[in-house]
Every structure is written in C-alpha cells, then in structure tokens.
Design brief:
By secondary structure, this protein is an alpha/beta fold. The protein has 24 helices and eight strands. Helix 17 packs parallel to helix 19. The two termini are about 45 Å apart.
Length: about 525
C-alpha cells in the first residue's frame, strides 16, 4: 500500500473534504498540521505552489485541493460509476470551489459598508442560487438514493457536506437560511454526517484555533480587515469507468491494446463464420457500442478505410463506419465567440481528432439564451442532448473520454493539479482583461504582467521539472490535457505581449512541443484571432 501524507493547516477548510474522503476509504495517512503563521512561513517555500494542502504519495506530491480529492476518489471508488456520473461529481466539486470563492469575498473587503452589502448579497442571491442548483441535482438523481450521484456515497456528497458546513459556520444561520429551509438538502447533510466512517471522524477530529475563519483565511493568504463576523467552521476509484459487462475492455478513460484485440476478435468471428455464429456478440449492445468506439478512434478508422481488402477489415469497416454516427455521442459546445474558458475544450476536441458542433452565442444573443443553461453561465457542453456545465468539469469529462487525462490515477492527479493551476491563472488574467475602467485596467495590467505572470510561470515550470520522464510534457511521455491547458493559459499573455515568456525558456520549448502535434497545429492555424 502507498504511504500517504497530508500537509495542511491545523483546521478544516480546504483540507477537511480530503480527510473525510480518506476516512471513508479507511486509509491511514500522516496528518501534518501547520499550527500558526510562524510555522507556515518556515515551510511555505517548500510547497510547489507556496500553498497547501499538499498530498504526498510515496514521496511524490500532488497540489491543488480538488486534484487531491479526485485522486482519492478514483483510488477508492468514491467517484461514481461511469464517465457521466464522474462528470456529475466533478460538477459538484467545482460548484463547491466556486461557492467557497464567493463566500470568502466579504472577509477580504476592507470597507465595512461594502462588506455588509456583500454579506447581504450572499444571503439573498448567492446562497439561494447554489442551493437551487445542488438541490436540483439531488432531486434529478435517477437512482433516488438520497445521494447526489448514483446509488452510493461519493466525494460529491462529502464536498457539498463541507460546503454547507462552511456557510453556516463562517457566516451564521441567517446567511445559511436558504439551505436550512431546504428539507432535502438538510436530510442529505444528516445522511452524510451519519455515514459510519464520517461520524467516527467527526467525533474524534482535533479542534483547533485554525477552525476560526479569520485565523484560517489569514494563513491561506487573505488580508482580512476585521474579525467581527468571523465564526467557527461547522461540520463540514478504483478508477470508475464506463465498464462493459464482465470486465469488458473499454476505451474509457483511454484506449489500450485490449480494446483493439477484442475489437479484432469479434470482427474476425463475424467475417470468418458469419452473423449467425457471431449472434451473441451482435445482440449485446454494450459490446457493439464498445466496438463502435474503437472503430471511431481516428487512427483505426483511417486504417480500416485505407485497407478495405484486408481479410478482416471489410466486415469491421462496413459494420462500424455506417453505425458509428448513431452509436457514438454527439457533442455541441455552447460558448461565446472568444477563447477564454471555452478554448481548452476546443483544443481537446482538436487533439483527439473528434468532431463537435461549435455553437457560438453572441453577446447580443446571450440574455435570451441564459435561462436555457443549467447555471446561467457558459461554457455548456451537450452530450447527446444532455447538458454539462462548469468549464473544468467538461475538460475532465472529455479528457477521460478521449484518452488525454493520463495513463493512470497518479498521472491523472498530476494533470489535474496543472489544469487547476492554469484555471487560477486565467481567473487572475481576466480581472485585467475585462476591467472597464481604463485607469484601474492599467494598474491591473502592471500587476498581471509583473507579479501574476512571474508567479504562475515559475510554479508551472516546477511542475514541468517534476516529470521524472523528462519528456518535455507535464505528465508521462505523451500529450495530455495538462499540456493543452498550459499552452492556452499563457496564450492570453502572449497576445498582449509576445515577449511575455522570454524569461522562461522551458515553457517556450514546451509550446513548440505542443505545436508539433499535427492535429493541434492544424486547429491553431485556422482558429479565429481574438483578444481573449
């Protein structure tokens, strides 16, 4: 068994969902707790992003709290069954992160009047909006199990449990009113709290000063003006795949030789002995869908088309070239006519050689389309008509679907931490890019191109250096979503200032490596030019 070590502050915050997941998994780990600011300053520089939590697996580290949570979920079957359920879990984890970001804004506001208004907005608009969304996901669960996704506890339940514990503990029952009045969510919270392993952990977990909101947020780097309304925080995969029967090989999350061998085996049976002998295979929809997926892999599809006279190719090509269009999912991306949060999704489609409908929504048309989207935001991806929201949730879904997530659970965690870091980078860049006041924009530009660029370029380079294969890629020996995310993440800086990365030769070399991928280059050569 691997040796685990979690490093975080002596409190709950972003570390508690990780601890709860490990408790449910029944896994022992070393719980390193940073007691105070003096201790934190001593160890801060040792952290990959100068931040915690950090999770060590046999000495190798994973940063970014949600990347750690997803790693544990995959390792211990807490992620849901099938890629679509995993994507719903991702949506809820991202929802928790978004909510946490909104919740801490009043603590960061120095003006007491504005702080009061922001807290009121949280109570009247923000909390009800998130309650409505999470409540709908709970009620829409076809399993009707009382859990948020599927028929069993997942890390989504743990994250949402922590989410509502945060709002009541940090901001009080009055602000948490919308949640406390939703009987289904309260029942869900109680269900999670009564789960044996979680109940046991809550009963014995340490109490500390860092559970005070003001202390913990200061440690995490937030400059708080006052502690007047700071409270005490409350309670807060075996790589699950879209598996065919009896452990049938599958292309999710990535194609293996097992998929190809089985695909070839059943093609040979039908070709040599006829449909009657291959009847059992042809009547099993899961097997047929699996074969259709293999046949749709661009390189295999091309080989079948180019080798029509091969003794096994004819049957395979005839059956699946005609059926793939209705066997394989159809994808439609809804986004604005810019790159921003939608471009990494487009790059994944390009790198995978997969087709999709790029449904552009103009800014003029957006007000009339907004109510059609699950959270009133873009991007949204439709998969056979079912809508997925949250940009990085969509990114992870497609990465698993098309084999760009990493070769194993640890590689996927490594890719996750890079993608999440680039997400943070974009958030900082967009503060500058979308600022309307020209004076403020000029001030933000200096901060963005001096401090922000330097910090993130340095941290991302560390991730590149941490790849033991020294392949030039961020994870393993081939292109993953991490490489695409970094390429696109710094594109915005280069559009404004082409010399932005001159001080970071490893990132410049990495960009050239990404461009050496023919599909990616072909897409980039033809995509429209936009400022963001």
């Amino acid at each position: 068994m691997p040796a685990y070590r979690l490093t975080y502050f002596d409190g709950r915050g972003r570390g508690e969902a990780i601890r709860l997941a490990l408790a449910v998994a029944g896994q022992e780990y070393e719980d390193i707790r940073i007691k105070d600011n003096e201790e934190w300053e001593k160890v801060k520089s040792e952290m990959p992003l100068n931040a915690v939590p950090i999770f060590s697996v046999d000495g190798e580290t994973i940063s970014q709290s949600t990347a750690i949570l997803r790693y544990i979920a995959r390792e211990y079957n807490l992620y849901g069954d099938g890629n679509m359920n995993m994507t719903k879990v991702d949506t809820l984890i991202s929802t928790y992160e978004d909510f946490f970001g909104e919740m801490i804004k009043p603590f960061m506001e120095p003006d007491e009047g504005k702080k009061k208004d922001m807290t009121q907005t949280l109570k009247e608009k923000t909390v009800p909006k998130f309650v409505k969304f999470v409540g709908k996901m709970l009620s829409d669960n076809a399993e009707n199990s009382g859990w948020l996704v599927g028929s069993k506890l997942t890390v989504a339940d743990i994250a949402i449990f922590c989410m509502f514990g945060d709002v009541e503990g940090m901001l009080g029952k009055d602000t948490a009113k919308a949640f406390l009045e939703d009987k289904n969510l309260v029942a869900h919270n109680e269900r999670v709290a009564s789960f044996p392993a979680i109940k046991e952990w809550i009963a014995k977990r340490p109490q500390s000063q860092c559970d005070n909101a003001e202390v913990r947020l200061k440690l995490e780097g937030y400059n708080l003006a006052s502690a007047a309304d700071a409270g005490v925080l409350d309670d807060v995969f075996n790589e699950a795949e879209d598996v065919c029967p009896s452990g049938t090989p599958t292309r999710i999350p990535y194609l293996t030789v097992a998929d190809i061998v089985v695909f070839y085996m059943f093609g040979a049976a039908e070709n040599l002995y006829g449909k009657d002998t291959a009847k059992a295979f042809l009547e099993d929809k899961n097997w047929v869908v699996h074969s259709a997926k293999v046949a749709a892999v661009p390189e295999i599809k091309e080989w079948l088309q180019n080798n029509p006279k091969h003794r096994f190719s004819y049957c395979l090509h005839q059956r699946f070239s005609e059926s793939t269009s209705h066997k394989m999912p159809t994808y439609k991306l809804h986004y604005f006519p810019i790159r921003a949060r939608g471009e990494l999704i487009r790059l994944i489609f390009a790198a995978a050689g997969e087709t999709f409908t790029d449904q552009i929504i103009t800014f003029a048309d957006w007000p009339s389309k907004k109510s059609e989207m699950p959270t009133g935001q873009l991007p949204v991806l439709e998969v056979d008509g079912e809508k997925l929201c949250q940009s990085l949730t969509i990114v992870r879904f497609l990465s698993r679907e098309f084999g760009l997530a990493g070769e194993n659970n640890f590689e996927q965690a490594k890719a996750d931490q890079v993608v999440d870091t680039v997400g943070d980078l974009l958030t900082e860049f967009f503060k500058y890019a979308f600022e309307k006041d020209e004076t403020k924009k000029e001030e933000l530009k200096k901060k963005t191109f001096d401090t922000v660029l330097s910090t993130f370029a340095t941290n991302v380079t560390k991730f590149l250096d941490m790849n033991k294969t020294k392949s030039g890629y961020f994870v393993g020996k081939k292109l993953t979503v991490a490489d695409l995310a970094v390429y696109e993440g710094f594109e915005d800086f280069l559009v404004v200032d082409p010399s932005s990365l001159d001080k970071y030769p490893k990132l410049v070399a990495h960009r050239k490596l990404v461009l050496s991928n023919p599909r990616v280059k072909a897409y980039l050569d033809k995509r429209p030019k936009t400022n963001v």
